[in-house]
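Appendix B, example 12.
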Amino acid sequence: MKKYFIFIVSLILLLAAYQIGTGLWLTSTHVPGVGTQAFADNMKLINSLVVLGSASLAFLLAQKIRRKTV
């Protein structure tokens, strides 16, 4: 159960950091009047890859922390 808790907390923190970082970047680079439909279409793939990478990293962190505590 502890391993699952570490995984979930790590995943939430990684995804929150990604969302905050993406929001800050998009806000700082926004140009009024420029169409962003092509960028929005590509974000589905990018977000899927980030979720997959975050889940993998959270799993590795949970494994590493578990080994140190045992």
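The mean pLDDT is 78. The two ends are 14 Å apart (CA to CA).
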